[in-house]
Amino acid sequence: MARVRLEHIKKIYDNSVVAVHDATFEVEDGEFVVLVGPSGCGKSTILRMIAGLESITRGRLTIGDRVVNDVPPKDRDIAMVFQNYALYPHMSVYENMAFGLKLRKYAKEEIQRRVREAAEILSIEPILERKPKQLSGGQRQRVAVGRAIVRKPHVFLFDEPLSNLDAKLRVQMRTEISKLHRKLGATMIYVTHDQVEAMTMGDRIVVLDEGHIQQIAPPLSLYDHPVNTFVAGFIGSPSMNFVGGEIIGDDDELTFRAAGGAFSLPLATRSHVSLKSYTGRGVTLGIRPEDIYVGGSSHVTHPISEAGLLLDVVEPMGNEIFVYARSDDQVVVARVAPQALPEPGERIRLAFDLEKLHFFDDETGSVIGEGDARAAAA
Hints:
By secondary structure, the chain is α+β, with helices and mostly antiparallel strands.
């Protein structure tokens, strides 16, 4: 079984710099898990500890049924695909893919069979005799993946493999890697700083920040139910709107009032039970750009509340428009369908979907009452 389990893993450099704090999670056999976060968050360090390229300061790492803390990389039955391809320039594609098998003394016939099989999966049979310098970036990345496939490892590790490719090729290659995962049914752990890659590829996503795991969940759960402002702001593009303000009212009727009196939103007490204890206190409202509409939209059927704001910037994207509006220091972004809009500098009425509001504690950044809201809705 190719299950990977991290138990309270910690990594300290030079006895003082903590790169990873108490990382605990499990990757099931055949699962595709993505580690995502900003630069320096510890995601690549975790991957390198799984590969055996970094020592573990504290904790236990298990691959299958074996604790591998002190097992050399070559004996862990893993294959790693790096950001820089790491192909031998003097060897052909075939020789690059076969090299690791030759070192392990595989029979010539078995090497040929495995290389041809991997080349067919990746559609690179026509380029097997070429040298790396004759290949495009996407072809080089396929060769690097093919070199991993021929080994038939228990676990595939990907360390930002698409970051050197242009935007169009990145989209194509992430689709190819997802298809490869379905075809092989292999356990894969993938590191990226690109939240779009994480959302489109992973069965589950591990979100990290400053060496701490913030949340582990399937992509849509992360998007719909972030546990704190970091996850809410990191996942999604454009990112979630955050508006500071306070909760006012009583048990029968609660209202969110934005700082500076920019706007107020009535709240259904039944759906926001936990907000009762925040009456008179500062909170942060979160709402996704696609949950804000231009006022008067006839297709909106759920409860909304409109607010008048100053239109700042309009960004036509073809199939949608990004609308930036503000009141004093409060700025919100709406993602709306193509339509006629006021000119920048004029007033615009925006409608907030009252069923898609998130609230966060100002002091901790943690979400307020997500569990209560879901339970009430049920």
